[in-house]
Amino acid sequence: MIRAILLIALVPAVVYGNVGRACTGGRPLSTNVNILGCTAAPCDLVRGQDVIAYIDFTTDRAVTTMRTVPTATALGITAPYPLPAEFADTCAWLEGSSCPLSANEDVTYRLTIPVLPIYPLVSLSIEIDIVDENDQSVTCFVVDAQVVSAN
């Protein structure tokens, strides 16, 4: 019986793992970052597929609007990792909540990142900074990843 309870308790930890790490500059770290299909970094980003991540964070102030600003670093080069407009609107993808947000509100955000078939097979770090209407960071995390082919 105890083995069954322990197994049930550990299965979510095996399927999903917090793969995010802190951004530089003292920006607020997300409480938890779960990328579907990834239990430990580096996470595989499969060409031609979307990456789905669930980000939990707590606001430290009232927020009216938010947008997601990804940046990728590969081979020593850092560049914007543009999201389609519909995915960059963070407020549109909150689960069980909506903007505006109150201070100290716990939030879950479903992030979708398209991985285009033309992306090179490369290891990279992706920084996800969620900023408010004043371009101030609400939460930020970095995940190590690698672009892989679908086969």
Automatic annotation (TrEMBL):
Protein's UniProt name:
MD-2-related lipid-recognition domain-containing protein
State the Pfam families in the record.
E1_DerP2_DerF2
For this UniProt entry, the molecular function terms from Gene Ontology, in alphabetical order, are: sterol binding
Location(s), subcellular: Secreted
Domain of life, per the record? Eukaryota
Tell me which SMART domains the record gives: ML
Q: Does the keyword Ribosomal protein apply?
A: no
Q: Does the keyword Mitochondrion apply?
A: no
Tell me the ranges covered by the MD-2-related lipid-recognition domain, including all copies: 20-145
Keyword annotations: Disulfide bond, Secreted, Signal
The family line of this record is: Belongs to the NPC2 family.
UniProt GO cellular component terms: extracellular region
Q: Name one GO biological process term.
A: intracellular cholesterol transport
In the record, which residues are listed under signal peptide?
1-17
